[in-house]
TrEMBL record:
PROSITE patterns: RECR, TOPRIM. CDD domains: TOPRIM_recR (cd01025). A zinc finger (C4-type) spans 57-72. SUPFAM superfamilies: Recombination protein RecR. May play a role in DNA repair. It seems to be involved in an RecBC-independent recombinational process of DNA repair. It may act with RecF and RecO. The keyword DNA repair applies. Belongs to the RecR family. GO terms for biological process: DNA recombination; DNA repair. The gene is recR. NCBIfam families: recR. It comes from the Bacteria. GO terms for molecular function: DNA binding; zinc ion binding. Keywords: DNA damage, DNA recombination, DNA repair, Metal-binding, Zinc, Zinc-finger. This is Recombination protein RecR.
Length: 199
């Protein structure tokens, strides 16, 4: 079907989002045309802002609008424990629980030989450097997802970190296999962190 160029461009843009096919993209595009000017402008500004105003924390790799991020800058947080997570969305899930008071390291991915993602492609070198430089760290809790990539990443990190004498633990599997931490409920997360085991 023929669309005027501004519409087809918008449809193409929506189709780049995950889970959006051409029908949904067209529906969203026409919905956008109907939206009040102000809402569309706010929407466009929000899109630009997430790219312009956010960066990765130079310490923990979390997405932030200040560097170091709010958590790394918070002197009241326990400096002895680092919770290693796959994504910034996982951190949000963990923070909602309000039971973890240590710090984080966000890998921004997992090891995945299938996709060609190796240790250098995610925040593993920065984690190792951090562990070498920060003598206050005594435990690293690996909280990657219970997927095969998440497990492989946990094992890889454990082998890498253990010789340094830092305790390495893994979240207990109240989390079902293949599950995403991002979607786990708070009770499950709390049980997983309380029942963590050394690996
Ligand atoms: Zn940080």
């Amino acid at each position: 079907m023929f669309y005027p160029e501004p519409i087809s461009k918008l449809i193409d843009s929506y189709m780049k989002l995950p889970g959006i096919g051409n029908k949904t993209a067209a529906r969203l595009a026409f919905y956008t045309i109907e939206m009040p000017d102000e809402e569309v402008t706010d929407f466009a500004k929000a899109l630009i802002s997430v790219k312009r105003d956010l960066s990765f924390c130079s310490i923990c790799g979390n997405i932030t609008d200040q560097d170091p991020c709010e958590i790394c800058s918070d002197e009241s947080r326990d400096k002895s424990t680092i919770l290693v997570m796959e994504s910034s969305q996982d951190v949000v899930a963990m923070e909602k629980m309000r039971e973890y008071h240590g710090r984080y390291h966000i890998l921004q991915g997992v090891l995945s030989p299938m996709d060609g993602t190796g240790p250098e492609d995610i925040n593993i070198p920065t984690l190792i450097k951090r562990l070498q430089e920060d003598e206050e760290i005594i435990e690293v809790i690996i909280a990657t997802n219970a997927t095969s990539e998440g497990e492989a990443t946990a094992m890889y990190l454990s082998r890498l970190i253990k010789p340094s004498g830092i305790k390495v633990t893994r979240l207990a599997h109240g989390l079902s296999a293949g599950s995403d931490i991002e979607y786990a409920d708070e009770v499950t997360l709390l049980k997983a962190i309380e029942g963590r085991q050394e690996i």
